[in-house]
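Margin note from the TA: students keep mixing up input and output lines. Inputs are the sequences; the output is the structure of the whole complex. Example:
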Amino acid sequence: AQSVTQLDSHVSVSEGTPVLLRCNYSSSYSPSLFWYVQHPNKGLQLLLKYTSAATLVKGINGFEAEFKKSETSFHLTKPSAHMSDAAEYFCVYPGAGSYQLTFGKGTKLSVIP
Amino acid sequence: EAQVTQNPRYLITVTGKKLTVTCSQNMNHEYMSWYRQDPGLGLRQIYYSMNVEVTDKGDVPEGYKVSRKEKRNFPLILESPSPNQTSLYFCASSFLGQGRGDIQYFGAGTRLSVL
């Protein structure tokens, strides 16, 4: 079955240091992939979307993600963490052949002042 | 303003008492879906709909019903709620124009407790 795996349930970084949130997908072809962010007590908001036009995707708030087919990865990065980045992040895969969406289990990002 | 509106935001009920959570979108989206979010499990899709009168099961449909009589509305119905349905529920919608990979717009969530 096709799926996404977020490799860390919790990541903690200091303010001003780089952020890396890891996501691996399982698929026999190059899928569409998304990253969504959920701030505390809020709904989910799209960060960025990969649709095969370019392997490096830039999103909102300085985040970007690189699609690597050879590694089946779609890791989310940001050069310098800000306190407002503290949230939960979800890697999302729209399944092949259907309209079901599969969410990773989420990575909670904490930013230490 | 483009939005997905869920009501109520908070609900406490008792086992077996039927309830409905409403969801409405004002963006003329064809696709709507319901998710539940539980700690450590992420979001799991309950049901989705690709247009009026077209619905299908997601990953965890047991104990839930949906209907899509109008394009803008997609209510979630719990005929006989049980404590294991205590969760945070999200409704989402999107266009289908770009296929299944289109951007989802989420409601603010409904926190349900079943006692």
